[in-house]
């Protein structure tokens, strides 16, 4: 019996890549690292962060996207309220943070909640207060340090680069999951294992 999976069964947004649907896994301020369980579609606690840091923005993924790390494309959504896990949020894309995590490229799209007047006037990452980007960089460089894992933030780039990265992840998703369904996920599982 097929079941609902947020990664494959939620639309990425009709105005993608400019405005996308983000599915939030981790609320801002959390020390818990929650992530989508790809098999069940439920949210699971991966771990509690080892370091004395907390997520600087709501964190999740863009549905129907796929990246080289075998996961959907990550998104950080700035919002003036806490966004609860598994909430679908319309997110206006303003930039991207390019990271290297354990020698793998790991892009994080940066967006603002489209329906939050306190942040939706930001149109590009360059509009953000400088401290916001420093906080993001510090968090991602520190959050795995006590696990003896190395993460480095390579660069922040503007919305045009973010659009390109989203489009690439959509293309890769469409190639990897041509039917966007369970059958594709099952065949991928066999390829990976």
TrEMBL record:
Highest taxon above the source species: Bacteria
Binding site for Mg(2+) 1: 69, 74, 106
Requisite cofactors: Mg(2+)
EC top class named in words: hydrolase
Cellular component, GO annotation: cytoplasm
Catalytic reaction list: diphosphate + H2O = 2 phosphate + H(+)
Gene3D superfamilies to which the protein is assigned, alphabetical: Inorganic pyrophosphatase
Alphabetical UniProt keywords: Cytoplasm, Hydrolase, Magnesium, Metal-binding
BP terms from Gene Ontology: phosphate-containing compound metabolic process
Protein location: Cytoplasm
SUPFAM superfamilies noted in UniProt: Inorganic pyrophosphatase (SSF50324)
The protein's Enzyme Commission number: 3.6.1.1
Record-listed Mg(2+) 2 binding positions: 74
Any GO MF annotation of the entry: magnesium ion binding
Binding site for substrate: 33, 47, 59, 143
PANTHER family: INORGANIC PYROPHOSPHATASE
Its biological purpose: Catalyzes the hydrolysis of inorganic pyrophosphate (PPi) forming two phosphate ions.
Family to which the UniProt record says this protein belongs: Belongs to the PPase family.
Known partners and oligomeric status: Homohexamer.
Name listed for the protein in its UniProt record: Inorganic pyrophosphatase
Organism of origin: Hymenobacter taeanensis
